[in-house]
Write a structure and sequence with these properties.
Largest sheet: none
Number of helices: 7
Order of helices and strands: HHHHHHH
Helix content: over 70%
Radius of gyration: 32 Å
Number of domains: 2
Strand content: under 5%
Oligomer: single chain
Shape: elongated
Amino acid sequence: MSTKQKKQSKQKKGLIRGIIGTIIIPILLWIVKPDIFKPILDYMAHKDEIQLKNNEACRVEVKDYYSEYVNTHEQLRDDINYIQDMYSKWLENNRTLPTEAEEKLKNIFSRLYFILKSDEGDTLKQNMERWLKVLVPSIKSDEEEYKKLKEQMTQETTENSGYSRTPLTPALPDLTDAMEAYDTSFKTFINDEVQNCVNRKK
C-alpha cells in the first residue's frame, strides 16, 4: 500500500470513529446519566409551551382587535343564504318582499362596512350591495343606479325564463363564489396577523 493510500485509509478510519463517537457517546450518556439531558429537554418543552401560549394569546388579541370584522365574517354565510332565499321569494311574489324581510336585509346591509378591505372583500361587498339594493329599494344610494339594475334584472329574467333551476344550484351564485374567495382571504389575513403578533413576542 502506498503512502498516499495509507493516509487516505487513516482519514477514513478517523472519520468513521468520529461518526460513531457522535452517535454512541450521547446514547451511553443517556443510559448512564439520563439527568444530564434533562435541562435541555426541560428547556425545549418550556419553549414549546411558551410558543403555544403566545399563539393562543395572540389569536385572542387579534380576534378582539378585529372583533367587528370577525363577527361579520361569522354571519356572512347565513346572510348570503338569506339574501339568496329572499331573491327566490322576490321573484315568486311579483318582486315584492314582506316588511320583516326588508328590515332584516337592511340590517345585513348595515354590516357590510365590516367586510375587510381587500380585493376579495371588495368584490363580495359590491355583489352584496348590488343585490340588496335590488331587493330593498329604500336602501339604494342612487336612483339612476337602481333603475339600471331593475332594467338589467328584467332583461335577465326574460332571457332565463325557460331555465329550470335545480335545488342544488343556489340563486345568485356570484355571491356564493365571492363568499368562498373572501372566506379564504379573511382566514389567511387573521392567521398572518396572529403570526406577526407571535413574532413580536419572541
